[in-house]
Amino acid sequence: MGLDKDTSNIDGMNGLERALKRVGDVLGAILLLVVLSPLYLYIYVRQRMDGSGPVIYSQERIGQGGKPFKIFKFRTMVVDAEKDGVPQLEQDDDPRLTEFGKVLRKHHLDELPQIWNVLKGDMSFVGYRPERQYFIDKIMEQNPDYRLLYQSTPGVTSLATIENGYTDTMEKMLRRLDMDLDYLRNRSLWMDAKIIFKTIFNL
Q: Going by fewer Cβ within 10 Å, which terminus of the chain is more open, N or C?
């Protein structure tokens, strides 16, 4: 399902830095899963009180090397939000959001299950946001450099996520791509640390 690999290496990190980044991801994920377990339990109970449907929502995204994986989130929308089978972007005041889902989205708490994706190695704490193939195809029509992102592991957070917000238009998607490519070219462990700090402050 992945796209053809691009041989142009633009990754700003060397092999040692990538290895240390992975170690930090694993240790950080284990710590957060333990520390945040009461919050996970609260959200689970609150979700069950909010109505029917699964608490955890999974969706196929495309990750490193153009390979698909299942990303996990706390469900924020009604069941069958895309019942017509056509992928849709979230809009302001989206009627598909549940009342508690609006709270989770506002504070990005719906992303917490992705810590499991980090522990598994599907994602890192910092990196480009993985997208669905449907939207990747549309982005590629405008800018084929998207394939360069496959050199790295997608992330839970990024500068683009913090500064560009939810990508509800193609314009925002292309702007996010430019920011993600700039991050990939210049990334370092110190840059990752600053992005994590900004994310915590933003939350």
A: N
SS3 126: strand
Q: pLDDT tens-digit profile of 28-69?
A: 999 999 999 999 999 999 888 876 678 998 999 999 999 999
Structure-token match 């506002």, residue found: 106
- Closest by CA to 130, choosing from 180, 189, 55, is 180
- Answering whether pTM is above 0.85, one says yes
Q: Per-residue DSSP letters for 4-50?
A: PPP------S-HHHHHHHHHHHHHHHHHHHHHTHHHHHHHHHHHHHH
Asked if 43 contacts 104 with a C-beta cutoff of 8 angstroms, the reply is: yes
